[in-house]
Amino acid sequence: MENHDKAILAASARHPIVPLPKGQFYNYGTAGFRMKADLLEGISFRVGLLASLRSRKLNGQAIGVMITASHNPAADNGVKIVDPMGDMLEQDWERYATALVNAPSDDELVAVYNKLAAELKIDLIVPAKVIYGRDTRPSGHTLVTALVAGLAATGAEHVDYKLLTTPQLHYLVRATNSEGTPLSYGKVSEVGYYEKLAEAFVRALRGRRIDGTLVVDCANGVGGPKLSELLKYIPKDKVNFDVKVVNDDVLRPEVLNLECGADFVKTKQRAPPSPKQQPGIRCCSLDGDADRLIYYWIDPESGFVMLDGDRISSLAASFIGDLVESAGLKNDLRIGVVQTAYANGASTTYITQHLRLPVICTPTGVKHLHHVAQGFDIGVYFEANGHGTVLFSPDALSAFRNAEPQSPAQKDALDTLAALGDLINQTVGDAISDMLLVEVILAHKNWTLRDWAMTYADLPNRLVRVEVGDKDRFRTTDAERRLLHPAGAQDEIDQAVKKYKDARAFARASGTENACRVYAEAATRSEANELAERVAHIIERYGAQ
Ligand code: G16
Questions:
Q1: Using a 6 Å CB cutoff, which residues line ligand 1?
Q2: pLDDT digits (tens, 9 = 90+) for 65-104
Q3: CATH code for the domain in which residue 515 is found
Q4: Is 249 marked as a binding-site residue?
Q5: Which residues touch 65 (CB under 8 Å, ≥6 apart)?
Q6: Closest ligand 1 atom to 340 CA
Q7: Does the N-terminal peptide bond of residue 363 adopt cis geometry, omega within 30 degrees of 0?
Q8: pLDDT score of 1
Q9: Which ligand 1 atom is the nearest neighbour of the CA of 385?
Q10: Alpha carbon of 31 to ligand 1 centroid (Å)
Q11: Is 314 within a domain?
Q12: Distance between CA atoms of residues 193 and 349, nearest Å
């Protein structure tokens, strides 16, 4: 067995872990390790050790590491691991990551590393390969240096893809591991990603026109330059795609996600103040690492109107459901929708009663939704915050390609479905790919955003962030819809909800910030606001105990 002990000890001393107060631990959460960037150097080093182990355990398949804090403020950063098919790290391994990162000294770190290798029967001689990228946060440089030190100490081959959106890294991991196989996911390069999306976009449009200008707010994050790059690959002679990229300043780190981006739009329920948009213009916002997408426009009569992840989900499910029917595959393929507790009740009713599709609710975090969506032939999953995608099973993809069309209409539907299979990122929610999908659907339906918004009326809702001493005291059950701890809090929430018509509320600990989140919906806006405030006070009170 190869011994990495000396190299790990030496490198760990250069990238030490910051000790936490007694009784507190680092935790591999919803989106990996995410916190203030100055706590992350030692963690990034240790994630390098874990990624090497994971690659070796999987016979040298490439593992991805993404350095990003996505929608969080500029001072935060994060490190998360991507599995070989481009999906999130297998859940069991989150525990191993947590164990390595919390080892209290360099010696104990080496002991945990060797213990994991022995317990998991990992041959440390097998080659390991890790590929990585980062968003535009300046702290990313230090974290990459620490990560590389961890990879070098364990003798892992590593490839630096530099600045990437999170979904681009997921794409590259899958492309790397499928290269040269019949299931090749695309060329192993950033250019390969653009070429694949641009080609599938043209094919999916099938000559339809895209109306008007689309303004894309890029949260001053990595999505800005990457979207501008993608647009170069969309042939102007074939597609009239008029995109105005805004909030794409990646030179001033402090403006990242500041008063712009998908999280701002969703939580504040208003358009970014800058640049000011003209009424009627079709707009959308990405988040800091371009994995979330929210559409909106300023209506001359009703003001700001938002089309969030639930809307994208129901739009995609209805369009793909119709295509499957036209393609004559309705009885062969099971379509389902996956949501979280944040899904607007009106969207769930629309999907189950109008589209007549099954809906499954999971805890927050795309890793949960992704897993459940894989149980369908066509699994549509989106969080209300705009994070999601559509997964096609191998059977579905082969049916799109190989079914014998009985009419030109069937052929058209099959060809469109096959194009969607390439357009939609199959590894993870991808704001840029999802945006192209929405544009394709609107063009096919010849719809404006107003037509899209008319499909159902959202229940008024409100999201509130509540600062608490220790968010981990708040534990939930029933897909995060009910609090188990602290005792008594859920009873008080139930009492508050009873006071309002058609109301629902829940509270949960954030997986990405040290805070709790409260969601409330009710028959009117003022009632939704009032209920959210009441529940927030309950949480504040229990949080202070
Ligand atoms: C991450 C996850 C999302 C999840 C979000 C929840 O988003 O990838 O699936 O919805 O965290 O955050 P919280 O637990 O704080 O409510 P992102 O875009 O920040 O990576």
A1: 30-31, 70-71, 287, 291-292, 364-366, 383, 385, 387, 510-513, 517
A2: 999 999 999 999 999 999 999 999 999 999 999 999 999 9
A3: 3.30.310.50
A4: no
A5: 47, 48, 51, 79, 80, 81, 82, 130, 131, 132, 147
A6: 10
A7: no
A8: 45
A9: 10
A10: 6
A11: yes
A12: 36
Confidence (pLDDT) at 513: 87
12, 44, 70, 318: the active-site residue: 70
Cβ atoms within 10 Å, residue 96:
22
In this structure, is residue 181 part of a structural domain? no
Contact present, 432 and 226 (Cβ < 8 Å): yes
Residue 30 pLDDT: 86
415 annotated ligand binder: no
What is the atom index within ligand 1 of the atom nearest the CA of 517? Answer: 16
**Are 449 and 503 found together in one domain?**
no
Q: What is the CATH number of the domain that holds 385?
A: 3.40.120
Measuring from atom 4 of ligand 1, which residue has the nearest CA? 365
How many angstroms separate the alpha carbon of residue 365 from the centre of ligand 1? 6
Q: What is the pLDDT of residue 2?
A: 58
pTM score, whole prediction: 0.97
Q: For residue 429, how far is its CA from the centre of ligand 1 (angstroms)?
A: 11
Q: Are 123 and 221 found together in one domain?
A: no
Residue 396 CA, ligand 1 centroid: distance in Å? 29
Nearest-CA residue for ligand 1 atom 1 is: 31
How far is the first Cα of the chain from the last one, in angstroms, to the nearest whole number?
Answer: 51
Tell me which of 253, 274, 305 is where a domain ends.
305
Residues of the chain short of pLDDT 70, as ranges, are 1-2
Q: Using omega within 30 degrees of 0 as the cis cutoff, is the peptide bond preceding 405 cis?
A: no
Task: Please give the residue range of the domain that contains residue 19.
Answer: 5-163
Which domain-ending residue is among 252, 282, 305?
Answer: 305
Q: Is 526 designated active site? A: no
> In total, how many domains does the chain have?
4
- What tens digit of pLDDT does each residue of 149-175 get? 999 999 999 999 999 999 999 999 999
